[in-house]
Every structure is written in C-alpha cells, then in structure tokens.
Design brief:
Chain lengths: ~350, ~400
C-alpha cells in the first residue's frame, strides 16, 4: 500500500465503508438484472457525487477537490471490490482532457457540472474493437465532426463527449444534433456504445501539449488498472476464504499444499500489481513523465487480473461457474477492462518502443 | 460390447462394406442436413427435430450405426473397429453426422453392457441405440464434488424396493432426461463399499429438478432432489456396494470423451490465424501485424499439434498393448487446457467485439464464442478436475505418496 496522506486515508476508509455497506455485490446484481443500457444506477452515482467523488481530479476553482489521481484510484479500487458500476472513471478521464487542454471558458462551462455529478462525460477514441489510437479516421471540417467511435465506455449516458479526431481532441455536447448512439451489450453489462457523429458541432481543445491524447489515455489506463486492482484483490480474498471453509476428503481445501502454493504465488502477483498500479496513479499526481508508469500499471493489471479471475473460478470449482455465485462478475468485467485502452501485447509493444528497443 | 476378438478382426471385405455404406447413406441421409452437428445436443438442450432429422435418427437407429461397435442383439451395429472406421470415414465424406449421442451412448451404455444383467441390457440398451431415451448422471452432490465418495443420497432397503432421499447437483441435462444413472449410499458404515449404482426414472414421484444458471447464461445442469422416491430393486446394477467400482468405470468412459482425444474439441471454422488477420491486420509480408499475438498463436497451434500427436500415440499404444495406455491420464488435463487457451485467444484477438453478450452489433458466431469461452471454464472442473487428475498422475503413475 502506498504511503497515504491523512486525507487520502480518510477518503479510502470512507469509500471502503460506503461500498461494503451501501453497495455490496448484491447491488450490482440488481443493476445487472435490470439490464439498462446505461449500466449503472443513477441514484448511486448521485450519492457518489454528493460524497465529492466526481470532482476528485477537478481543480477547486472549477468545483472539484483536486485530490488527485491516487485518491481517485483508491476509490475505484474499493468500488472494484464489489463490482460497483459508475461512470466515475470514464468521466474523470474525459474531464482530464478539459483540464489539460481546455480554454478557461470551456473549463468553466463543463467542469463544474462534471464535478457536481450532473454530467457524465465519455472519452471516444477508438474506432474498432481493439485499442488503436494511432488510427483515427474521424475528421472535423468547419467545426463539424464526423466519424464513428466504437465501444465508447459510458457512451449511453454521456452528456459530453471528448472525441479524438485526426488533428486533436474535440468537445461534443451529448445533446447536439447528428449523434446516433447504439448500445453494444458486452458480458460486463456496463455501457459500451457505438457513437456515430454526422457533422456534429465540435469545439477543439486547443490547449495542452501535442501529447494531449496520450496524456489523457495514460489517465484512462491507470483508472482502469485501479478498478482491476479492486477486482483482483477481492477475487483473491473471496477465493482464500472459500478454500479455508470448503471441506473435501475430510479436510479443508486450504490444507492442500498444491493449493497453498498457488495462492502464495497469486498473493505475490497481486502485491506487485498493487505497486505498479499505485505508482502509475502517483506518477500522474507528480506531474512528471507518466507514460511508462501508466503502461506498466495497466500491463501488470492485465496480466495479474487475467490469471486471478481465471483462478477464482477454477479454485472454487463448480460453484464458481454458477450465476448465483459472484465469480463470473469478476471474470467478465476483468476481460472487458483488459481489452480497454490497450491489451497486454499493445502495452508491451509501446513500452518497448518508449524504452528504445 | 462385442468381444475383443470380434472388434479386432479385420474388415472381411472392406471395399464391399464401403460400397454398402456409401449406397445406404445416399439413400438415407438427407443432403439438407449436411454439415449440421448434434454432438453437444445432450448438453446444450432439447433438440428441436425437423421431420427430416427424425427420419435420419430413426434410420441410423434401425441400423444400429449410431453405436456401431455395440452388439447387434441389443440394437448396436455389431461392427468391427475396422468397419466402424470405414463407416465414420464414409459419413464424413457424405457430410453426415451421428444423430445418436448423449450420456447414454458415451457413458452409461458401455458401462451397462459390462456390468448389467441380461434383463437390464435388454431393457435399456436398445432405446439408447435408437436414440429414444435420454440419460442423465446423478453423481455429484453439494458436499461430494472432487471427493465424490462422500456422497450421502441414501437408498433405504424396503424389501421389494429402495426408498431414495437426497440431493444431486451438476445433473447434466436433468431437465430433459428420461432416466438417471445414480450413485447412492446403501450402507452408511463404509465410505466406498457403501455405494451402489441405481437407475431412477426422472418422472417418478418425488423427483424434482431445478436448473442451475451458469455464468454463460445457459442452464445445462440441474440440481436434482429425491424425496421418498420408490425405486424397484431390479434397477440396481451389479450388487449392493459395487457402485464405486461401476461408477469409476463409467468415469473412464466420460474422461475419454471429455479429453478432446475424440473430435469434439477439434476446432471448426476459421483458424485463429485467419481471425487474427481479419481483426489485427497483416504486415507487408502477410504476417499478423501484432507480433506478440502472432507468436502466441503459433505456440497454441504447435501445442495443439503435440496434443493431437499424443492422443494418436495413446490410441496406437493402447491397441498394441490391448489396454489403456497410462499416458491417457494426461489427455483430459491437456485437452481442456488447450481448449480454454484457444477460447481466451479468440476473445483477445477480437478485442471488445469478442466480448459481446447479446443484441445488435455481434454475429451469431461471435456471441457463441463468448458463451463457449465462459462455459469452457467448467471443462477443467467437471469430469474430474485438473487438480484431481494431477493427484491421480502423481500418486498412481509417479508413485509420489502422501506423508506417511
């Protein structure tokens, strides 16, 4: 666990207490069964916003608390433990584009509404099912944006889109004319939408560095990694508890050495995943070069999350395969997060390029 | 089963038999059914048969060719292994598939032929051979999974019948089955020798079936509850207390079928590489653009070939030795692992397109791959989990014993 400030410790404890008491996995099960395209409970997100979570990475001048990315990561980790659905991560990543690249006017227009929880924002980059920010076909002519974005996270509820076009990032009002949304129903039952923009009014984010898109993607990656850390950690804890109580052959499974060693190895993997994820979040707060730290965070989250979610099912045996048990939720959400913002091959390739080999 | 001598005799005149099969298939197999596959019907749900499919099932049932090596007197084909191979080659050539399958064919039939008495064989084998009766397996219980011998469902001796009480779980296809072959406890004082093998009608009073929804969204398994179910004594297979021996023998048939040593795990449709080329693209020389993915697909293809070679070697060695090769014990673990790895690769290649649950934007094939990926997680758990298989290998083959 990273060394936290007093405020961060309080925030994490509050998030933990609220999630465990008010938003256990049974709450997600209800949202899942309701099967709405938006994929989260609006009232629940309202409560999160009241607790200030929607404004954690938004400057105080624009209605946020500017608590930072590690702080938001702590919250997302807690939410991940119970598979709690919210548009927090997508909204924060999109908001960061406004913070880093927006004019003062754009910031004043959008950020307070995001920080208050009134507005969900979404980051629309990829145009195919695999993360590929180097291939963007969307174009803007005379302030009108055209193109189709694939699997836009929280795209069904978004009131603001941050859209990658060939020449930069643009803001598009979710209510603007010319937007067509189609739900893409994935195994995680969260919002992923195909969004078609037909000559939609768009405003460019003129500020920020040339690397604005990459800087925003770093933030999207570390937030996904934080949720994955919560999923993996809980998958581990639940599995460990099960092994300690399930009796076969007259003894609890936890006494079998073959299983002990597997759990010991997973424990080591998850601790290293935690180091990488927390370092990725902290790198963004420190304001230095974030690129490698973010790639490492997401790559480790992908690798360890993949194995842990698979082992959760295998080590539970048959009961892990049932819908009545929760293991499937962790597996399904994990695979979707693995594919978002770069799968492991992509991240390794980028890491190698950045490292000069 | 036919005797070993019968099975191993060379096809007397292979070419004559080939001609016979060919003309029979031309007459009886409706070409419109070409390329369909019934192999998983017993697991995935009730088959909605078209009149053509019914006619095809009846024709094959009449001939006994759905179970080609089973004895003729019980409705089997009575073929030697050589002739059965000819039959399967000719069926493949015609695009014909076997309409007769399920647990009756794969597991229960061979076991009953070995352990059943004459009356039981006469009663139960012919309807299996004709594909008329569906069987399900009543083995696992909530507290008897890997430790199967811990099963508690009790069959109390009531003179002319048993009174059965208890709960089974993971009853494959229980909601569609006509009958259940069950392991029950007839003696509470002996863990293994207190188990008996009993046949129970699923429509008997007191039998209750509740489908279990799986993470794939499907419900191929059930919980089965027995409450004061009266089972006639003649439904006991073997003697009281022989259930563990008979039940284990049946599991050998199950594992052979689950290993993928057969054709069931043989991937059909486009190869991983072709799908990757479509989703990932290729470089100037036609190589999959993502080099890491390319290397891992190559690894999978090579692992798969090594597995198939092993399966073939096991078959050849078993035939040579006239028994089951010890290497067969690795087939289930290896085959199911490769199946799961392929499903994961397929998802990774397609990115988010490979994770669709339902609705707009996904092809049927893509959605089927997702369900198969999720359901496939069970393959390393059921039919003897990978962990139990590894115990068997370590203890029985490698002689690695527990602490003394």
């Amino acid at each position: 666990m990273a060394v936290l400030s007093e405020e961060q410790t309080m925030l994490r404890d509050m998030a933990r207490e609220w999630t465990q008491n008010e938003s256990p996995v049974t709450a997600w099960r209800k949202v899942r069964d309701a099967n709405e395209a938006t994929g989260f409970d609006a009232g629940t997100y309202g409560t999160m916003a009241e607790m200030g979570w929607a404004g954690i990475v938004i400057p105080e001048a624009h209605g946020g608390s500017d608590f930072g990315w590690l702080s938001l990561g702590l919250v997302l980790e807690e939410l991940g433990k119970t598979v709690t659905a919210s548009p927090l991560a997508a909204t924060a990543a999109a908001a960061s584009a406004v913070v880093l690249g927006g004019s003062e006017e754009q910031k004043q227009l959008w950020l307070p509404r995001i920080a208050s929880g009134e507005l969900v924002a979404a980051l629309a980059v990829d145009e195919g099912p695999r993360h590929d920010p180097a291939t963007i076909k969307a174009t803007v002519a005379d302030g009108r944006l055209s193109g189709t974005k694939a699997f836009v996270a929280e795209g069904d509820a978004a009131g603001l889109f941050v859209v990658a076009a060939g020449d930069g990032l643009y803001l598009v009002d979710g209510g603007a004319e010319g937007i067509t949304r189609s739900r893409r129903h994935l195994t995680d039952f969260r919002s992923h939408a195909e969004i078609r923009f037909d000559g939609v009014a768009a405003e460019k984010l003129e500020g920020g560095k040339d690397s604005l898109l990459d800087d925003v993607l770093d933030r999207a990656r570390v937030l996904a990694a934080a949720e994955m850390l919560g999923l993996a950690g809980q998958a581990f804890d639940t599995t460990l508890a099960y092994l300690k109580q399930r009796v076969q052959f007259g003894q609890v499974l936890a006494t079998f050495q073959a299983l002990q060693h597997r759990m010991a190895a997973l424990y080591g993997d998850i601790e290293q995943m935690r180091s990488a994820v927390e370092a990725g979040l902290a790198a963004i707060d420190s304001g230095g070069d974030t690129r490698q730290a973010a790639l490492l965070a997401k790559a480790k989250a992908n690798e360890v999350g993949h194995v842990m979610s698979r082992e959760m099912i295998q080590l539970h045996g048959g009961i892990g395969m049932t819908d009545e048990y929760d293991a499937g939720f962790y597996l399904k959400r994990m695979r979707v997060l693995e594919a978002m913002w770069g799968n492991t091959s992509y991240l390794r390739d980028r890491f190698a390029s950045l490292s000069g080999f | 089963m036919a005797t070993a001598a019968e099975l191993d005799r060379p096809a007397s005149s292979p070419e004559d038999f080939r001609q016979e099969v060919r003309s029979w298939l031309a007459e009886n197999f409706p070409p419109t059914l070409k390329g369909m596959d019934n192999a998983l019907a017993s697991v995935e749900g009730p088959t909605e048969e078209t009149p053509e499919m019914t006619a095809w099932r009846r024709a094959m049932g009449e001939k006994g060719w759905g179970v080609p090596t089973w004895p003729k007197e019980y409705g089997g084909g009575g073929l030697s292994r050589a002739d059965a191979r000819v039959l399967s080659q000719e069926m493949a050539r015609a695009g014909a598939w076997n309409p007769i399958g399920g647990m009756g064919v794969m597991m229960f039939g061979p076991t009953l032929l070995e352990y059943g008495n004459e009356a039981q064989k006469q009663e139960h084998i012919p309807p299996i051979a004709r594909g008329e009766i569906r069987w399900c397996q009543g083995y696992s219980e909530p507290n008897a999974g890997s430790d199967l011998a811990n099963l508690q469902t009790f069959a109390e001796d009531k003179g002319d019948h048993y009174l059965v009480n208890g709960q089974k779980t993971w009853t494959s296809g229980g909601q569609w089955a006509d009958k259940c072959f069950c392991l029950v406890r007839t003696d509470k004082s002996d863990k293994h020798r207190g188990i008996s093998f009993l046949l129970i009608d699923m429509d008997a009073p007191g039998v209750e079936v509740k489908p279990i929804r799986m993470i794939s969204g499907m419900s191929p398994f059930c919980e089965t509850f027995f409450t004061n179910v009266e089972v006639p004594k003649e439904n006991l297979v073997g003697k009281e207390g022989e259930g563990w021996t008979i039940g284990k023998r049946l599991l050998q048939h199950e594992r052979t079928n689950l290993s993928g040593g057969g054709s069931r795990l043989q991937p059909s449709g486009p190869s991983l590489a072709d799908i990757a080329k479509k989703f990932v693209g290729t470089d100037d020389e036609g190589r999959i653009a993502d080099r890491d993915l390319r290397a891992r697909i190559a690894k999978w293809e090579m692992d798969w070939r090594a597995f198939l070679l092993t399966a073939m070697r096991v078959q050849a060695e078993s035939k040579e030795a006239g028994g089951v090769s010890v290497v067969s014990s690795i087939l289930k673990t290896a085959g199911t692992k490769l199946g799961q790895e392929r499903a994961e690769l397929l998802i990774e290649i397609r990115g988010l397109q490979g994770l669709g649950w339902e609705g707009e934007g996904f092809s049927e094939g893509e959605l089927a791959s997702v369900r198969a990926w999720l359901f496939g997680k069970a393959t390393t758990i059921y039919g003897g989990s990978t962990e139990v298989q590894n115990n068997v290998i370590a203890k029985r083959i490698l002689g690695m014993l527990d602490h003394q």
